[in-house]
Amino acid sequence: MAMLKKMLAMTALLLTVPFASARDDLIAIDILIQPDAKMVEAAKQWNGRMREQSPEGFELDAEHAPHITLLQLYIAQTDLPKVVAAVDGVKSAFELDRLQMAAIGLYHIANGNIGLAGIVIQPTERLRMLQRAMIDATGQYSVKGGDASAFVPDATGAAFPPALFEYVDTFVPKQTGDNYNPHVTIGVAPIDWLKELEMQPFEGFSFGVKNIAIYQLGNYGTASKRLDSAP
Fold first, then answer.
1. CA–CA distance from 36 to each of 66, 85, 152 (Å)?
2. Nearest alpha carbon to residue 163 among 179, 175, 155, 178
3. CA distances from 47 to 70, 74, 120, 176, 218 (A)
4. What does the alpha-carbon distance between residue 166 and residue 73 come to, in Å, rounded to a whole number?
5. What's the pLDDT score for residue 17?
6. How far apart are CA 41 and CA 38, in angstroms?
7. CA 122/CA 66 separation, integer angstroms
8. Which of 7, 16, 95, 150 could form a disulfide with 26 if both were Cys (CB 3.0 to 4.6 A apart)?
9. What is the pTM of this model?
10. What is the pLDDT of residue 80?
């Protein structure tokens, strides 16, 4: 009986202690490549074509920066300075000016009757090496279970698709290594129109790297808010 009373007292005490949310302090981040001016201009031209089809779609701008994702993950906000330092360490050891890339086509991810479109980048061993280095440097800070509160709010009020939360949660291993699909997101448009567009010849081109940066993710996986201080 004494033991039972003790257990009940401990339970009552625990019930008076508020439980902290496991998600309140998380941010969804994108460690990304900033492409050079050639790719940025091409992405904006394609974005203009997307918006002719879906005027309500997003425009590539400071809150929807053209980029090539290396790694997406949730981290605690308090760990951001450590993540920035880890990324800077990889950057200093990697010769970015030697990283040449090639745009080879278009693709889309379906979301009902609308598709999120992108320019496909040729995956190379050097790109995969850079991605692996970022995973090794920052993986210790990865946290699972982020939700909409981890993202930059959508200014249009559009809801966040639940698939986006899982996409970030499972980026490693589903979007890394042999599964890596480097691309530059260019906007949203009707699925049928995108399918026809992708059947047309694509004029490929090569381009280089401006920098590596860290952004907080917005809706559709866009790079919405710069988190590091590099130019």
1. 10, 23, 25
2. 175
3. 21, 28, 14, 26, 17
4. 10
5. 36
6. 5
7. 17
8. 150
9. 0.87
10. 97
